[in-house]
Write a structure and sequence with these properties.
Strand content of chain A: 15-25%
Order of helices and strands of chain B: HEEEEEEEEEEEEEEEEE
Strand order of the largest sheet of chain B: 6-12-11-8-9
Largest sheet of chain B: 5 strands, mixed
Shape of chain B: globular
Number of helices of chain B: 1
Number of strands of chain B: 17
Number of helices of chain A: 17
Oligomer: heterodimer
Helix content of chain B: under 10%
Shape of chain A: elongated
Distance between the termini of chain A: 77 Å
Radius of gyration of chain B: 19 Å
Strand content of chain B: 35-45%
Chain lengths: 751, 213
């Protein structure tokens, strides 16, 4: 195992204390910044608010002033309108009757011109003069002193009113001795003809702007008029007037007639200047009402406010710094603990990760080992399967030898009897009965050898399914396994009865040798399960589209556990005698046949295996048809065999079948005769001196590739046809007539 | 006495006729009517017959020359107020003609003039005012009449220093007959601002055709 030095987590004391310091500094910075920002914004906000409040106050006062002045002006304008619209005024002007004109107007306007002393009532309507102008703007001279005194420079300025078809407000500068000027307000009203409705003249009425300043604009305000680039504000010195006048000139065009404000400096003190265009749309020069509000008190108030805010900010800052110190101490403690814990955690994690890497490597190595073991195991399995098969073969070998000897006994016996007593041949019935016995015994011997062949063939790859007759298969198998259930059992002193309950069933599709292996295994198992003897029952029956084979014994039966596992590979109850592969092979083969395996068993009750296999008819798809022997036609046959006895037998059989037969004593002879004649089929022995059977076949195939060749061989069951590429059909000796007939039919059907 | 004056005058006229009287006719192109209809509703309360429609423009054509004032008294002309309007709104008269201003409405009228030719103010008077208010127009010129109560009312009296004048019809056609031979100025008054004139020479029995302009 890997081990790690068990060192304690290295946490420097200096690290945490510096953390505490950093935290403190950071918090102080944040608090300072926040406080400063808050102070800044609070101060700015309050200043703005205070400024706005003051401005709004001033604006309201200014609007008030403007409103009063507008009302004043409107009253005068209305009076002028009445005079100008009067019929007598219009007709007198039309007829140029100046006396009537001024007389009438004087009657209407005298009240305005002559009312009370100016100081007593500043807001009273007080006109200074009125004049009529003709259509060109020239002043129509009043007879006598009607119309009041007209200040000298004004008569020229009045001409601007000529031709206007609406009332106009004008502000005119009047020099009042020296450099002083006064602003007179003027209302000009057009007069229309009684005949055509055209403007034929103008009534111009001059009056003093009402001096409402202190009363309406606010106590500290100073109001005045801005006219023609000059500011007329009585209580302000000339320098300030000029500079303010310039400022208004810059701002005025953009104000568009609305009330506007300017922050200005007048007389060294900050002021708010409000102004508004008085005569929008007038033909006279634009004039602005101007109001100047001192901001000194507001500025002082703001200064006071600023100090208050600063004081509050300082207090806030001190409190915040104290709190940050306290909080940093409080927070630093758990963080220091956290640092210690975190160092420990990291060490632990690194250790665990290293272990994990090692474990992973070990797992990979183990996996490789397991792969190798699996490969070995597979090889072993193949080997074991082969051994199992050899063991079964060995078990049967003794039986086969016994059977074969048994078969030979009557053959040899009767043959010897006939040799010793040739007269018996004259006794025809007796001779025939001897021959029958010999034939039967020989057939048995052949079948014994055949059994061996079938067993051997079981290992040859997968074959296409062909029709399998279960009855015949079961009969064959029970015969084949006879040494197991009869001879060996008897040798062990037990008796096993075999019962065949075979109902006729239609053929199934399958591989006969594989199914035979299945049955052999099941029979062997059944016999092994009956160590004290019993009954082995084989049944066949039909269930729907399936044929069912049952192998039942009356043996010891299986426990539940065994029953559950018996189909698994390498599961065995036989100890050293079993491989544990038998039933698993059975299961595999049944599955390959699309069948199902059922197992009923209980301890002491015996075991019954049921195998259901689909019937031939139920199988979809082409299945190799069982080829019924066709009626033979007469063939030209070349037979090559070095043994005369075999040759004669074949000759007799083939001629009996009606074929035309030609003999050859060996390979060379056969080749020569083949070249001399024409043959439908060639039958040749394998082992022949000189040119053997397959060599001759090769030579013949070179001459005539279409000619079918049948090879007879005593070793047929040990060969595979693939080993003889030139041979069409392989037939094992001893040759039986049906086999020969079938071979010829198969061979010729190819061509 | 009147009859004897007439008898004295008649031979004069007869001699003029014996010289052969000239005639002028023609057409004056008139300006389009500009007078707006009266819209003021307050008059409807005081009048039953409604407001008199403004007359279409007409011209006054007259012959100016060194004619002596006729010694005989001239006939009295009338310019009535009816349905809040002057009937007729344009009245040409010779110098010295007496014009009466009868009030035919059932309300007060106050006729006045500021014109140079004749300034007067009749003051408020009722229909039954007797004698009928009048003025004698001694100076030639245009007299614009107004009513101080009804501002829309406007009347014109054209005082002419000639006995030869006529009013055109609304299309501007006029005819002046019984004119003496000689060289004169023919004038056409179109409105208060426009008076057209043409020198004419009239021969006895001639028939002149003059169009303005």
């Amino acid at each position: 195992m890997w081990t790690f030095p068990d060192r304690p987590p290295a946490v420097k004391q200096g690290g945490t204390s510096s953390f505490r310091g950093k935290l403190l500094i950071a918090m102080m910075l944040v608090i300072s910044a926040t406080t400063l920002a808050a102070l800044y914004f609070a101060q700015r906000g309050m200043e703005t608010h205070a400024q706005r409040t003051i401005e709004q106050e001033f604006q309201a006062a200014f609007a008030n002033l403007l409103g009063v002045q507008a009302a004043h002006r409107a009253m005068i304008a209305e009076r002028c309108g009445a005079v100008a619209g009067a019929l007598r005024t219009r007709s007198a002007l039309e007829d140029h009757n100046l006396e009537a004109l001024y007389l009438n107007a004087d009657i209407e306007l005298r009240a305005l011109l002559k009312s009370g002393p100016p100081a007593s009532n500043a807001s009273a309507l007080r006109a200074t003069f009125f004049r009529f102008l003709d259509a060109e703007g020239a002043v129509l001279p009043p007879p006598g002193d009607y119309g009041g005194p007209l200040p000298a420079p004004l008569d020229a300025q009045l001409a601007a009113a000529a031709g206007a078809d609406e009332q106009q407000a004008a502000y005119l500068a009047v020099k009042v001795g020296g450099a002083r000027t006064r602003i007179d307000e003027l209302v000009s009203t057009p007069i229309t003809s009684t005949d055509t409705g055209e403007v034929i003249g103008t009534l111009a009425l001059g009056f003093r702007p009402a001096e409402f300043g202190a009363q309406f604009a606010g106590a500290e305000a100073r109001s005045g008029i801005w006219l023609d680039g000059r500011l007329h504000l009585p209580s302000l010195e000339a320098a300030s007037l000029d500079s303010l006048g310039q400022e208004i000139l810059r701002g005025a065009p953009s104000s568009g007639g609305a009330a506007s404000s300017l922050a200005v400096t007048a007389g060294g003190a900050p002021h708010l200047l409000l102004y508004k265009l008085l005569n929008p749309g007038s033909r006279f020069p634009p004039a602005y009402e101007v109001c100047l509000y001192p901001l000194i008190s507001a500025v002082a108030g703001q200064e006071h406010l600023r100090w208050q805010i600063l004081g509050a900010g300082a207090l806030l800052l001190c409190g915040g710094l104290g709190a940050s110190h306290f909080i940093s101490v409080r927070f630093a403690a758990p963080v220091e603990q956290l640092a210690v814990d975190s160092a420990e955690h990291r060490a632990g994690r690194e250790r665990a990760e290293a272990e994990l890497v090692l474990t992973n490597e070990a797992l990979v190595a183990r996996n490789v080992e397991l792969q190798t073991a699996l490969t070995d195991l597979k090889a072993t399995q193949q080997h074991v399967i082969q051994q199992e098969r050899l063991r079964a073969l060995g078990q049967m070998a003794s039986g086969i030898a016994h059977d074969f000897n048994n078969a030979l006994v009557p053959i040899l016996g009767f043959c010897e009897l006939l040799q010793i007593r040739p007269e018996i041949l004259a006794n025809r019935p007796k001779a025939l009965s001897y021959l029958d016995t010999i034939q039967t015994a020989a057939k048995d011997a052949a079948s014994v050898v055949g059994r061996l062949r079938e067993f051997y063939r079981a290992d040859k790859g997968l074959k296409p399914f062909a029709p399998v007759h279960l009855k015949r298969l079961l009969e064959q198998t029970i015969t084949l396994t006879r040494p197991k259930w009869k001879e060996q059992a008897q040798a062990a002193g037990v008796t096993i009865d075999v019962a065949l309950e075979l109902e006729p069933v239609p053929p199934i599709a399958g591989e006969e040798s594989a199914l035979r292996e299945v049955l052999t295994n099941l029979i062997f198992n059944a016999v092994d399960a009956m160590p004290a003897g019993g009954t082995l029952t084989l049944r066949t029956r039909r269930e729907g589209d399936s044929a069912v084979i049952e192998v039942a014994d009356t043996g010891t039966g299986m426990t539940e556990e065994v029953r559950l596992h018996c189909l698994e590979p390498f599961f065995s109850t036989k100890g050293e005698h079993g491989t544990g592969l038998g039933l698993s092979m059975v299961f595999g083969i049944v599955q390959r046949h699309s069948g199902s395996l059922d197992l009923r068993s209980a301890p002491g009750q015996g075991t019954t295996f049921s195998i259901a296999l689909p019937l031939m008819d139920a199988i979809v798809g082409p299945v190799a048809e069982a080829q019924a022997p066709k009626p033979q036609r007469a063939l030209r046959v070349l037979v090559a065999d070095d043994e005369a006895a075999v040759r004669d037998t074949l000759c007799a059989i083939l001629m009996t079948e009606g074929h035309d037969v030609t003999f050859a004593a060996d390979g060379h002879d056969g080749l020569r005769r083949f070249g001399a004649g024409q043959f439908d089929v060639v039958i040749t022995d394998h082992s022949m001196p000189g040119l053997n059977g397959d060599q001759m076949a090769a030579a013949i195939k070179r001459l005539a590739p279409q000619t079918p060749i049948i090879l007879l061989t005593g070793f047929g069951l040990f060969y595979d046809k693939k080993e003889f590429p030139d041979i069409d059909v392989l037939v094992s000796k001893p040759v039986r007539i049906p086999a020969l007939r079938e071979a010829i039919a198969t061979a010729t059907s190819h061509s | 006495m009147n009859a004897s004056l007439l008898l004295q005058l008649l031979p004069c006229l007869a001699t003029a006729a014996a010289y052969g009287q000239a005639t002028i006719e023609g057409r004056v192109e008139l300006p389009k009517a500009h007078a707006a209809p009266v819209v003021s509703k307050r008059y409807e309360i005081v009048t039953k017959g409604g407001v008199v429609a403004t007359d279409p423009p007409m011209a006054v054509v007259y012959l100016e020359g060194p004619f002596a004032n006729p010694a005989v008294p001239l006939p009295t002309a009338q310019m009535a107020q009816k349905d809040l309007g002057f009937v007729t709104p344009l009245l040409p008269v010779s110098v010295g003609t007496k014009v009466e201003f009868p009030n035919l409405d059932e309300t007060y009228h106050n006729i006045f003039s500021y014109s140079q030719a004749k300034r007067f103010d009749l003051g408020r008077y009722r229909p039954e005012e007797r004698p009928i208010p009048f003025q004698i127009f001694e100076a030639p010129g245009l007299v614009t009449l107004h009513c101080d109560i009804h501002e829309h009312m406007r009347g014109l009296i054209l005082v002419l220093a000639t006995p030869y004048f006529t009013k055109s019809d609304t299309a501007g056609r006029y005819r002046l007959a019984g004119l003496p031979a000689g060289r004169y100025t023919l004038k056409a008054w179109v409105n208060s601002k426009t008076t057209l004139e043409r020198a004419v020479e009239l021969k006895s029995g001639s028939n002149l055709h003059v169009d303005f302009p």
